Amino acid sequence: MIPAHEAAFATLSRVGIVPVVVVDDPARSSDLADALVAGGLPIAEITFRTPGAEAALRTFADRPDMLAGAGTVLTADQVDLAAEAGARFIVSPGFSTAVVRRAQELGLPVLPGVASASDLQAAVAEGIERVKLFPANRLGGPDMIASLSEPFPEMGFLPSGGVGPGNAAAYLAQPSVFALGGSWMVRRDLVAAGDMAAVARLSAEAVALVASLRAGAGTGVSA
Protein backbone atom coordinates (compact mmCIF):
# COMPACT_ATOMS: atom_id res chain seq x y z
CA MET A 1 0.00 0.00 0.00
CA ILE A 2 1.22 3.50 -0.86
CA PRO A 3 1.90 5.55 2.31
CA ALA A 4 -0.75 8.20 2.97
CA HIS A 5 1.66 11.08 2.52
CA GLU A 6 2.86 9.76 -0.83
CA ALA A 7 -0.70 9.15 -2.05
CA ALA A 8 -1.75 12.68 -1.10
CA PHE A 9 1.27 14.30 -2.70
CA ALA A 10 0.79 12.18 -5.83
CA THR A 11 -2.74 13.59 -6.16
CA LEU A 12 -1.56 17.16 -5.60
CA SER A 13 1.16 16.70 -8.21
CA ARG A 14 -1.17 15.09 -10.72
CA VAL A 15 -3.84 17.79 -10.52
CA GLY A 16 -1.28 20.58 -10.21
CA ILE A 17 -3.44 23.08 -8.31
CA VAL A 18 -4.49 23.31 -4.68
CA PRO A 19 -7.48 25.65 -4.23
CA VAL A 20 -7.05 27.71 -1.08
CA VAL A 21 -10.58 27.97 0.28
CA VAL A 22 -11.88 30.42 2.88
CA VAL A 23 -15.35 29.39 4.07
CA ASP A 24 -17.36 31.97 5.97
CA ASP A 25 -20.65 30.05 5.88
CA PRO A 26 -20.31 26.26 6.34
CA ALA A 27 -23.75 25.84 4.76
CA ARG A 28 -22.09 26.64 1.43
CA SER A 29 -19.58 23.80 1.83
CA SER A 30 -21.45 21.01 0.07
CA ASP A 31 -22.27 23.13 -2.98
CA LEU A 32 -18.72 24.44 -3.08
CA ALA A 33 -17.29 20.92 -3.03
CA ASP A 34 -19.69 19.98 -5.84
CA ALA A 35 -18.47 22.94 -7.89
CA LEU A 36 -14.80 22.08 -7.44
CA VAL A 37 -15.34 18.45 -8.39
CA ALA A 38 -17.43 19.51 -11.39
CA GLY A 39 -14.55 21.72 -12.49
CA GLY A 40 -12.04 18.88 -12.21
CA LEU A 41 -10.48 20.04 -8.94
CA PRO A 42 -11.10 17.31 -6.35
CA ILE A 43 -8.79 19.05 -3.85
CA ALA A 44 -9.29 21.77 -1.26
CA GLU A 45 -7.13 23.42 1.36
CA ILE A 46 -9.68 24.70 3.89
CA THR A 47 -8.05 27.54 5.77
CA PHE A 48 -8.44 27.58 9.55
CA ARG A 49 -9.13 31.33 9.54
CA THR A 50 -12.87 31.41 10.13
CA PRO A 51 -15.21 30.05 12.82
CA GLY A 52 -16.82 27.78 10.24
CA ALA A 53 -13.60 26.24 8.97
CA GLU A 54 -13.77 23.06 11.00
CA ALA A 55 -17.36 22.33 9.98
CA ALA A 56 -16.54 23.05 6.35
CA LEU A 57 -13.55 20.71 6.50
CA ARG A 58 -15.77 17.94 7.85
CA THR A 59 -18.16 18.36 4.93
CA PHE A 60 -15.34 18.23 2.38
CA ALA A 61 -13.55 15.36 4.11
CA ASP A 62 -16.70 13.21 4.19
CA ARG A 63 -16.68 13.06 0.39
CA PRO A 64 -14.85 10.10 -1.19
CA ASP A 65 -14.25 12.17 -4.33
CA MET A 66 -12.42 14.99 -2.51
CA LEU A 67 -8.91 15.27 -1.04
CA ALA A 68 -9.49 17.77 1.76
CA GLY A 69 -6.79 19.33 3.87
CA ALA A 70 -6.44 22.05 6.47
CA GLY A 71 -4.55 25.26 5.78
CA THR A 72 -3.29 28.14 7.94
CA VAL A 73 -2.52 25.57 10.64
CA LEU A 74 -0.46 27.39 13.25
CA THR A 75 -0.31 25.08 16.28
CA ALA A 76 -0.11 21.41 17.20
CA ASP A 77 -3.59 21.71 18.73
CA GLN A 78 -4.95 22.83 15.37
CA VAL A 79 -3.32 19.78 13.77
CA ASP A 80 -5.37 17.66 16.19
CA LEU A 81 -8.56 19.56 15.34
CA ALA A 82 -7.90 19.17 11.63
CA ALA A 83 -7.20 15.46 12.00
CA GLU A 84 -10.41 14.96 13.96
CA ALA A 85 -12.33 16.78 11.23
CA GLY A 86 -10.93 14.40 8.62
CA ALA A 87 -8.09 16.41 7.06
CA ARG A 88 -5.88 14.33 4.80
CA PHE A 89 -3.06 16.85 4.66
CA ILE A 90 -1.85 19.85 6.66
CA VAL A 91 -0.55 23.19 5.34
CA SER A 92 0.99 25.98 7.39
CA PRO A 93 1.97 29.50 6.28
CA GLY A 94 5.32 29.35 8.08
CA PHE A 95 7.67 26.75 9.48
CA SER A 96 6.66 25.35 12.86
CA THR A 97 8.52 22.36 14.24
CA ALA A 98 5.58 21.64 16.56
CA VAL A 99 3.11 21.54 13.66
CA VAL A 100 5.38 19.39 11.51
CA ARG A 101 6.11 16.88 14.26
CA ARG A 102 2.49 16.56 15.35
CA ALA A 103 1.36 15.97 11.78
CA GLN A 104 4.07 13.35 11.34
CA GLU A 105 3.03 11.67 14.59
CA LEU A 106 -0.51 11.38 13.22
CA GLY A 107 0.70 10.16 9.83
CA LEU A 108 -0.62 13.24 8.05
CA PRO A 109 1.18 14.69 5.02
CA VAL A 110 2.39 18.18 5.93
CA LEU A 111 3.42 21.13 3.78
CA PRO A 112 5.12 23.66 6.04
CA GLY A 113 5.52 27.21 4.79
CA VAL A 114 9.00 28.51 4.06
CA ALA A 115 10.32 31.96 3.18
CA SER A 116 14.09 31.52 3.38
CA ALA A 117 17.01 29.14 3.14
CA SER A 118 16.98 28.91 6.93
CA ASP A 119 13.39 27.65 6.84
CA LEU A 120 14.38 25.07 4.26
CA GLN A 121 17.27 23.86 6.40
CA ALA A 122 14.84 23.41 9.27
CA ALA A 123 12.48 21.50 6.96
CA VAL A 124 15.24 19.19 5.77
CA ALA A 125 16.19 18.50 9.40
CA GLU A 126 12.62 17.26 10.00
CA GLY A 127 12.64 14.99 6.94
CA ILE A 128 10.41 17.26 4.85
CA GLU A 129 10.69 16.89 1.06
CA ARG A 130 7.93 19.27 -0.07
CA VAL A 131 7.16 22.77 1.17
CA LYS A 132 4.88 25.72 0.55
CA LEU A 133 6.65 28.92 -0.49
CA PHE A 134 4.60 31.74 1.01
CA PRO A 135 3.95 34.52 0.14
CA ALA A 136 5.51 33.41 -3.12
CA ASN A 137 5.20 36.55 -5.23
CA ARG A 138 6.42 38.91 -2.54
CA LEU A 139 9.41 36.68 -1.90
CA GLY A 140 10.59 36.84 -5.50
CA GLY A 141 8.35 34.36 -7.25
CA PRO A 142 9.86 31.89 -9.72
CA ASP A 143 13.30 33.49 -9.39
CA MET A 144 13.25 32.81 -5.65
CA ILE A 145 12.37 29.17 -6.28
CA ALA A 146 15.17 28.86 -8.82
CA SER A 147 17.65 30.29 -6.31
CA LEU A 148 16.50 28.06 -3.47
CA SER A 149 16.51 24.98 -5.68
CA GLU A 150 20.26 25.26 -6.21
CA PRO A 151 21.26 24.43 -2.60
CA PHE A 152 18.12 22.28 -2.08
CA PRO A 153 17.82 20.32 -5.36
CA GLU A 154 15.63 17.56 -3.88
CA MET A 155 13.00 19.90 -2.44
CA GLY A 156 9.58 20.22 -4.07
CA PHE A 157 7.80 23.57 -3.93
CA LEU A 158 4.16 24.61 -3.86
CA PRO A 159 4.14 28.38 -4.40
CA SER A 160 1.17 30.19 -2.88
CA GLY A 161 0.36 33.87 -2.40
CA GLY A 162 -0.07 36.01 -5.49
CA VAL A 163 -0.18 32.99 -7.80
CA GLY A 164 -2.70 33.10 -10.64
CA PRO A 165 -3.31 32.52 -14.35
CA GLY A 166 -1.01 35.41 -15.28
CA ASN A 167 2.10 33.92 -13.72
CA ALA A 168 1.30 30.19 -13.65
CA ALA A 169 3.56 29.54 -16.64
CA ALA A 170 6.57 31.12 -14.96
CA TYR A 171 6.07 29.04 -11.83
CA LEU A 172 5.46 25.76 -13.64
CA ALA A 173 8.59 26.35 -15.70
CA GLN A 174 10.53 25.63 -12.51
CA PRO A 175 11.15 21.84 -12.36
CA SER A 176 10.91 21.82 -8.57
CA VAL A 177 7.34 23.18 -8.55
CA PHE A 178 4.99 20.21 -8.14
CA ALA A 179 1.74 22.21 -7.85
CA LEU A 180 0.36 25.72 -7.45
CA GLY A 181 -1.63 27.07 -4.53
CA GLY A 182 -4.24 29.67 -5.39
CA SER A 183 -7.63 31.13 -4.61
CA TRP A 184 -8.63 32.75 -7.90
CA MET A 185 -11.06 29.93 -8.71
CA VAL A 186 -12.65 30.06 -5.24
CA ARG A 187 -12.78 33.80 -4.66
CA ARG A 188 -14.37 34.66 -1.37
CA ASP A 189 -16.96 36.92 -2.97
CA LEU A 190 -18.09 34.18 -5.35
CA VAL A 191 -18.46 31.68 -2.52
CA ALA A 192 -20.32 34.19 -0.35
CA ALA A 193 -22.69 34.95 -3.22
CA GLY A 194 -23.27 31.27 -3.87
CA ASP A 195 -22.07 31.60 -7.47
CA MET A 196 -20.94 28.01 -7.76
CA ALA A 197 -21.31 28.03 -11.54
CA ALA A 198 -18.48 30.58 -11.66
CA VAL A 199 -16.40 28.48 -9.27
CA ALA A 200 -16.87 25.40 -11.47
CA ARG A 201 -16.00 27.38 -14.61
CA LEU A 202 -12.89 28.97 -13.12
CA SER A 203 -11.79 25.62 -11.74
CA ALA A 204 -12.13 23.96 -15.13
CA GLU A 205 -10.19 26.81 -16.73
CA ALA A 206 -7.43 26.47 -14.12
CA VAL A 207 -7.14 22.71 -14.67
CA ALA A 208 -7.00 23.21 -18.43
CA LEU A 209 -4.37 25.93 -18.08
CA VAL A 210 -2.06 23.76 -15.98
CA ALA A 211 -2.50 20.80 -18.31
CA SER A 212 -1.72 22.98 -21.32
CA LEU A 213 1.36 24.51 -19.72
CA ARG A 214 2.69 21.15 -18.66
CA ALA A 215 2.07 19.67 -22.09
CA GLY A 216 3.82 22.61 -23.71
CA ALA A 217 6.82 22.14 -21.46
CA GLY A 218 6.83 18.43 -22.25
CA THR A 219 7.24 17.56 -18.59
CA GLY A 220 3.96 15.88 -17.74
CA VAL A 221 3.63 16.01 -13.96
CA SER A 222 6.29 17.87 -12.05
CA ALA A 223 8.16 16.33 -9.14
TrEMBL record:
Keyword Endoplasmic reticulum: no
Example GO molecular function: (R,S)-4-hydroxy-2-oxoglutarate aldolase activity
Chain coiled-coil ranges: none
Pathway the protein takes part in: Carbohydrate acid metabolism; 2-dehydro-3-deoxy-D-gluconate degradation; D-glyceraldehyde 3-phosphate and pyruvate from 2-dehydro-3-deoxy-D-gluconate: step 2/2
UniProt keyword annotation of Lyase present: yes
Catalytic activity, EC: 4.1.2.14
SUPFAM superfamilies given in the database record: Aldolase
Catalytically driven reaction(s): 2-dehydro-3-deoxy-6-phospho-D-gluconate = D-glyceraldehyde 3-phosphate + pyruvate
Enzyme class: lyase
Key words, A-Z: Carbohydrate metabolism, Lyase, Schiff base
Alphabetical list of Pfam families matching this protein: Aldolase
PANTHER family: 2-DEHYDRO-3-DEOXY-6-PHOSPHOGALACTONATE ALDOLASE-RELATED, 2-KETO-3-DEOXY-6-PHOSPHOGLUCONATE ALDOLASE
Subunit structure comment from the entry: Homotrimer.
Family to which this protein belongs: Belongs to the KHG/KDPG aldolase family.
Protein name: 2-dehydro-3-deoxy-phosphogluconate aldolase
Species, as recorded: Arthrobacter halodurans
Gene: eda
